[in-house]
Design goal:
It contains 11 helices and 12 strands. With about 290 residues, it is α/β, with parallel strands linked by helices. It folds into 2 domains: about 140 residues, Leucine Dehydrogenase, chain A, domain 1 (Rossmann fold), CATH 3.40.50.10860; about 140 residues, NAD(P)-binding Rossmann-like Domain (Rossmann fold, 3-Layer(aba) Sandwich), CATH 3.40.50. The strands form 2 sheets. A 6-stranded mixed beta sheet has the order 2-1-3-5-6-4, with helices on both faces. The protein has a 6-stranded parallel beta sheet with strand order 9-8-7-10-11-12, with helices on both faces. GO terms for molecular function: shikimate 3-dehydrogenase (NADP+) activity. It comes from Belnapia arida.
Length: about 290
């Protein structure tokens, strides 16, 4: 007779953020937990639905601790706001100034960032031999900071960061250069010139999402020799990827970052090694069902 559901070890976690009804993270955690023999329960704590803002974070973390949550993921607008409420930060979370995973253990709150490692793992799998001499990144927000960190860890020699807010791009480039060395990251000034010299392009803006259709740069700046990566995964084929593929560019969809950040969080919450391939397949099923 198979083990009854109630006798399995419990695994309770959640996601704190605003407007998170469409997130696939709960389903990925619950499915992987079930296969691993856990009573996996992953709840959305949607600030918009609850009528709260980031000022309620401490209250929500206290509640999660009292209810026995193994941890919570946090997303917009909480990735920076949560930091003063934590007891400890991983080296990566401290360097990035952003947290997306909080482990709750023995009365302590420990912040991690699995966004950067999620992008890095997706890149290693999807574009393992891609040239990394010069890369252009568009978008210097929270996700952009994680992706830029990942790109430099992956060995990109020179990263040109562009953003509609030039000051934000400059601050990110300065922080990256301080960690990785002078010249490794610069704030871009001439997008066309940078694209002429680039091996690859990463879009870290919301442009391409269903509610923000379009391209993050003029299509004439693309050429067949480029590789093009996305972090948007609704839809999986953004207009940028469609145009790039039509030109013959190698491309990387945004789903990898979404899956592998969840892989990292699952590992931190449970101490169990998830099956990343299985989680990727489940993610594809979930996206296909949308």
């Amino acid at each position: 007779m198979s083990e009854c559901w109630e006798s399995r070890p419990a695994y309770l976690a959640g996601l704190i953020g605003s407007g998170i009804a469409a997130s696939l993270t709960p389903a990925m955690h619950e499915r992987e937990g079930a296969v691993q023999g856990l009573r996996a329960i992953y709840r959305r704590l949607d600030l918009a639905v609850l009528g709260l803002d980031a000022g309620a974070l401490d209250e929500l973390l206290i509640a999660a601790q009292r209810l026995g949550f193994a941890g919570v993921n946090v997303t917009h607008p909480c990735k920076q706001a949560v930091i003063p409420l934590l007891d400890e930060l991983s080296a990566e979370a401290r360097a990035l100034g952003a947290v997306n995973t909080v482990v709750l253990r023995e009365g302590r709150r420990i912040g991690h960032n699995t966004d950067w490692s999620g992008f890095a793992e997706g890149f290693r799998r999807g574009l393992p031999d891609a040239a990394r001499r010069q890369v252009v990144q568009i978008g210097a927000g929270g996700a952009g900071a994680a992706v830029a960190h990942a790109l430099l860890v992956l060995g990109v020699e020179r990263l040109a960061v562009f953003d509609t807010d030039a000051g934000r791009a400059a601050r990110l480039a300065e922080a990256l250069a301080a960690r990785f060395g002078a010249g490794r990251a610069v704030a871009g000034l001439d997008l066309a010139g940078a694209m002429d010299e680039a091996d690859g392009l990463v879009n870290c803006t919301p442009v391409g999402m269903a509610q923000y259709p379009g391209l993050p740069l003029p299509p004439e700046l693309l050429r067949p020799a480029l590789w093009v990566a996305e972090i948007v995964y609704f839809p999986l084929e953004t207009e940028l990827l469609r145009v790039a593929r039509a030109l013959g560019c190698r491309t990387l969809e945004g789903g990898g970052m979404a899956v592998f950040q969840a892989v990292g969080a699952f590992r931190l919450f449970t101490g169990i090694e998830p099956d990343a391939g299985r989680m990727l397949r489940h993610f594809s099923e979930l996206v296909g069902a949308r």
